[in-house]
Amino acid sequence: MSFLRAARAALAGQSGAHWILAAMAVVLAGIFISCGGSSHPSVAPNHSAYVSLPASGSVALLHIDGATGAMSIGSQTPQVEGNSPQGLALLPSKKFLYAVNSRANTISIFNVGSDGALTLSGIPVPAGSGPDNAVIDPSGKYLLVTNNFSNDISVFSIDSTSGALSEVSGSPFYANSDPSEILITSSGQFVYVTNPGIGMVTGFSFSNGVLMPVPNTPTFSGLGAIGLAVDSGERFLYVANASAPNPSVPTIGNISGFNIDPNTGALTPIIGSPFTSSQGNGPTALTVDPGGRFVYAITAGSSFSIWCFTITPTNGQLTPVTNSPFSLTAGGLFALIDPSGNYLYVGTATGKGVAGFTYNQSTGVPTAIVDSPFVTGTPPGKMVLSE
Q1: Can you give the pTM of this predicted structure?
Q2: Checking CA distances to 312, which of 183, 230, 232, 320 falls within 20 to 30 Å?
Q3: 272-321 pLDDT, tens per residue?
Q4: H/E run at residue 309
């Protein structure tokens, strides 16, 4: 019998002073359970992830132990020379996975089996020139792909039954020079892409498959603007500027913070932006934990490679957590936190795989998972989680 149930039984069978003591037990039980639930992350079930392997021309299935976060590589799609898959997008229904083939200028569609294995569906669909990254809107109706060389974004409607793609009217949409990373807010209302060559971020409103530039776009962020992340409340956008100088500290690279206008999507700098680290150089990947408390900026290598900041809820300002930056084996290819908020995953070329970390829910401090990094054979491109 649980502590709470026992207290309730005592309450039902006692009176007077005993009744008061039993009632206090119920209250204390509730406090105990509430505090326990808020201070410990939930244990995720075992699940899967997918990682693109550009050098081998394939996509690999990864198995994730929900209790530890450890990864093991599973089946891979047949290698196709010259495909160079990069960006990945998984339909919310988990029925179809889309892989952007950067060199072939195409998008491959894969059926996802009950065991997570991928099977190619039909012939690849033409994309723009130099397709790079992809996202699916929260409704699961549209796939958006950045095209580096043609300076635009292709938008496709998704057939929910077959997974087939049909380019929408007006696509592709101009997205300024060299659009790279792409992010869509959880409401599906706004889309942002980085333009590394000009140090800008370009914003769009999004409705029924149509992209419309937001006011004052593109907005200057910093040299080498690349990684993107948004807080859970869609109030703040953060951009990693990999090659931006910092006059006040001897580092290269910083994080720009922007307020997001909830009506138009327009961006205005957060007071104090850009934010940087006391050590380390070249952040290229960003992620925000599901609770909206921490921003992680990832650099290549193992020296001062993970920058961690707390987000000030009232204004979006970033403050380095104690002992940040952290010298852990990492890499700036991508950064993801699983939806349960238990694990941080980072794509690393050095380790030819994926580095995994737990992180303290109160302080943000990361700790490497046992046996991390997890080997994928060749350096990964992008990763998506299936949970």
Answers
A1: 0.88
A2: 183
A3: 999 999 999 999 999 999 999 999 999 998 899 999 999 999 999 999 99
A4: strand 306-311
Residue 16: which region, alpha, beta or left (left: phi > 0; alpha: psi -120 to 50)? left
Domain boundaries, the chain: 1-40, 44-386
Q: Say if residues 48 and 382 touch (Cβ distance below 8 Å).
A: no
Give residue for tokens 């149930």.
5
Cα(367)–Cα(191) distance, rounded to whole angstroms? 32
∠ CA 225-227-229, nearest 5°, is 125
From residue 122, alpha-carbon distances to 88, 109, 162 in Å are 17, 7, 10
Instruction: Identify whether the C-beta of residue 175 lies closer than 8 Å to the C-beta of residue 189.
Output: no
- What's the CA gap between 193 and 363, in Å, rounded? 30
Q: Return the axis-axis angle of helices 3-13 and 16-39, rounded to nearest 10°.
A: 160
Give the single-character DSSP code of 197: G
**75 by DSSP, 3-state: which?**
strand
How far is 93 from 87, CA to CA, in rounded Å? 19
Q: Residue type at 213?
A: P
For the domain made up of 44-386, the CATH class stated in words is mainly beta
Q: How confident is the model at residue 41 (pLDDT cuts 50, 70, 90)?
A: low
Tell me if 61 sits within 8 A of 48, measured CB to CB. Answer: yes
